[in-house]
Amino acid sequence: MEAIKISDLCKAYGNTKAVNNISISVNRGEVFGLLGANGAGKSTTIECVLGTKKFDSGSVSILGMNPQTERKELFEKVGVQFQESNYQDKITVTELCEVTQALYKQPSDYVALLKQFSLLDKCKSQVSELSGGEKQRLFIIVALIPSPEVVFLDEITTGLDSRARRTVWNGLLELKKKGLTIFLTSHFMDEVEALCDRICILKKGTSIFSGTVQEAISRSPFEKFEEAYLWYTDEEEFNNESV
Ligand code: ADP
Hints:
With 243 residues, the chain is an alpha/beta fold. The chain folds into two domains: 2-77 and 148-242, Rossmann fold (3-Layer(aba) Sandwich), CATH 3.40.50; 89-146, no CATH class. 33% of the residues lie in helices and 23% in strands. The protein has helices at 42-50, 71-74, 93-101, 110-116, 132-144, 162-177, 189-195, 213-218, 225-233; strands at residues 4-13, 16-26, 31-35, 57-62, 78-80, 150-154, 181-185, 198-203, 206-211. The strands form two sheets. A six-stranded mixed beta sheet has the order 5-6-7-3-8-9. The site of adenosine-5'-diphosphate has 11 residues, from strand 2 and helix 1.
């Protein structure tokens, strides 16, 4: 059974086809990257997959369950990292982790996660006082507290410095080794190369490439993935239909 299966997913806002017939399947233990420029349809796809947005047609399942009708059972096994969250002003890192832990039947050891993502020294700090990069790492930890089988991570390392990015990559690769399935979005192609087993590139709601990073490179006229990615996504400078 696939960890995530998206079939013929469509979602329009008025005349805008935000997601146009997308099919993706992610195997268990895989790291899958959903890529594309701003407005390509990544967030809409993720929201439809998580059941927080109604879609027009198609079907979605996570761990064989329907995210709209089997929410309670499913979200015991699925972690989601939110970009911005409204936490109480004065809540500390430890308190947030404890509150989150209390919601789940078999939570992870959050102290180990704080250590793994180099945030243990901030455990007494208020969440509101953390730097952008520290908050980003904390939100990843919060997504991992349920001991999920699948985790959705949106722009994991935006705003992180080089060292913090490596910490996050290594932490995620460790969890992958233990069988975690990771569905992520990223605007950094070095990150995608370091982490993703397979990718899907969206352009204006349509999937224009699906496969491994190596396949993406070899089907383009370029040798570097970043250049290949720009070639796939950019309509002004390159014309990839001609190749
Ligand atoms: P991405 O996450 O890749 O930046 P989005 O899924 O946010 O892309 O957006 C895809 C398209 O849908 C864009 O053209 C965007 O303007 C449009 N869109 C997104 N949300 C809404 C909304 N709530 N109402 C109308 N149009 C929307």
